[in-house]
Design goal:
The protein is α/β, with parallel strands linked by helices. It has 2 domains: about 1-160 and about 295-350, Alpha-Beta Complex (Quinone Oxidoreductase, Chain A, domain 1); about 165-295, Rossmann fold, CATH 3.40.50.720. The chain has helices at about 45-50, 100-105, 150-155, 160-170, 185-200, 215-220, 230-235, 280-285, 300-310, 325-335; strands spanning about 1-10, 20-25, 30-40, 65-75, 85-90, 90-95, 115, 135-140, 145, 180-185, 200-205, 225, 240-245, 260-270, 290-295, 320, 340-345. Strands 3, 4, 5, 8, 9, 16 and 17 form a 7-stranded mixed sheet that branches. It has a 6-stranded parallel sheet with strand order 12-11-10-13-14-15. Strands 1-2 form a two-stranded antiparallel sheet. Helix 4 (about 160-170) crosses helix 5 (about 185-200) and helix 4 (about 160-170) packs across helix 9. The chain is globular. It starts with a strand and ends in a 7-residue tail after the last strand. The relative contact order is 0.16. The structure holds NADP nicotinamide-adenine-dinucleotide phosphate and zinc ion (2 copies). NADP nicotinamide-adenine-dinucleotide phosphate binds near residues 159, 207, 249, 250 and 272.
């Protein structure tokens, strides 16, 4: 059933150019939360989807999955949220609730998981994301934004932040100093550096150029900075890292980076390169190394990273822009010209 008419910015085809688009939200059901979107982060995954690089995009597509909003209406069975609350929604807005993944707080891996946009809701409606004036989401996929966290600061944590946090959590109580590598210093990468530092790790940024060296070492507090094309620097860092968080969004040679890992080191692939990654088997075997993937984090972990952020007094590095800048924002993201995340001021953009 159709609910409120809203305006978002949608792409109509693989050019991924966004422009205003009106559509109807579903009606607020008993377990739903309707919220006005305040801010929405701009993630490289949005671009992969808008360009149909993952090959299942339905147009018109309203992207945006780092969404912070203010609750306007709640269904009769919603107990967790009240009108006026500041809330967040990340990458997923549904799952089956019954499978092993759902029962063990890993609902992001449920085979019936529903993406925040470009997916079909349980009621048959098409999901559209946070580049829009309002959203309706089932309460189980909504998190509370802590009172002392600015909403625009919170937005990137809802996808990029939890994506870095989820695989790194396993090291939280380590008694030894963990030596971390953060590969690619973009939206996810910069939060990875801040999280790893806050966990007490010794952090090396591995970057494609030296352009971000000064700010990585000063503003983000990284301990070392490696330029991946500098053979001497890379050679000196062989066998030095316990893990690498790989955030590169394009195809790359894993075997360039695997030798940086110590014996039993792990590389966590979170960058969603559309093309296959390459590595040689011997690089893995001789060193008992692990390649693993990781997809965002659970709803529980999403709440955890928000609370962790406040507890550790961390600061997301963002550039806040209005919705009519979104095409330029994507253009600059592709040119690697953002420090380090665009956040759209949706409520301040007068979409309606
Ligand atoms: N697994 C998940 O759940 C999840 C969640 C969020 C995002 N993602 C994916 O993670 C990736 C990163 O997202 P993001 O929003 O952080 O993107 P981003 O802001 O564009 O950052 C990516 C970084 O990778 C490096 N890079 C870019 N192009 C490169 C190239 N051609 N060769 C080598 N390095 C390159 C750059 O860092 P340097 O300048 O330091 O080289 C860049 O800042 C995307 O593929 C996105 O879809 C996955
Ligand atoms: Zn499930
Ligand atoms: Zn994302």
């Amino acid at each position: 059933m159709e609910g409120r008419k809203v305006t978002g910015w949608a792409a109509r085809d693989t050019s991924a150019i966004l422009s205003p688009y009106s559509f109807h939200l579903r009606k607020t059901g008993p377990e739903d939360v309707l919220f006005k979107v305040l801010y929405c982060g701009v993630d490289h995954s949005d671009l992969h989807q808008l360009k149909n690089e993952i090959h299942f995009t339905t147009y018109p597509l309203v992207a945006g999955h780092e969404v912070v909003g203010e609750v306007m209406e709640v269904g009769s069975e919603v107990k967790k949220f009240n009108i006026g609350d500041i809330v967040g929604v990340g990458c997923i807005v549904g799952s089956c609730g019954e499978c092993w993944c759902c029962k063990t707080n890993k609902e992001q891996y449920c085979s019936k998981m529903v993406f925040t946009y470009n997916a079909i809701n349980n009621d048959g409606s098409f999901t559209q994301g946070g580049f829009s004036s309002a959203m309706v989401v089932h309460q189980n996929y909504v998190v509370n934004i802590p009172e002392n966290l600015a909403p625009e600061q919170a937005a990137p944590l809802l996808c990029a932040g939890v994506t870095a946090f989820s695989p790194l959590k396993q090291f939280i109580n380590s008694e030894e100093v963990i030596r971390a590598g953060i590969l690619g210093l973009g939206g996810v990468g910069h939060l990875g550096v801040l999280i790893a530092k806050a966990m007490g790790h010794h952090v090396t940024v591995i970057s494609s150029s030296d352009k971000k060296k000064h700010e990585a070492l000063t503003d983000l507090g990284a301990d070392c900075f490696l330029v991946s094309s500098n053979h001497d620097e890379m050679e000196k860092s062989l066998n030095s890292l316990d893990y690498i968080l790989d955030t590169i969004p394009v195809s790359h040679q894993l075997q360039t980076y695997l030798p940086l890992l110590k014996v039993e080191g792990k590389i966590f692939i979170v960058g969603a390169a559309p093309e296959p990654l390459q590595f040689g088997a011997s690089g893995l075997i001789l060193g008992k190394k692990t390649i693993s993937g990781s997809f965002i984090g659970s709803i529980e972990e999403t709440q955890e990273i928000l609370d962790f952020w406040v507890e550790k007094g961390l600061k997301t590095m963002i550039e806040v822009v209005k919705m009519d800048y979104v095409n330029k924002a994507f253009e600059r993201m592709v040119k690697n010209d953002v420090r380090y995340r665009f956040v759209l001021d949706v409520a301040g953009s007068d979409l309606e």
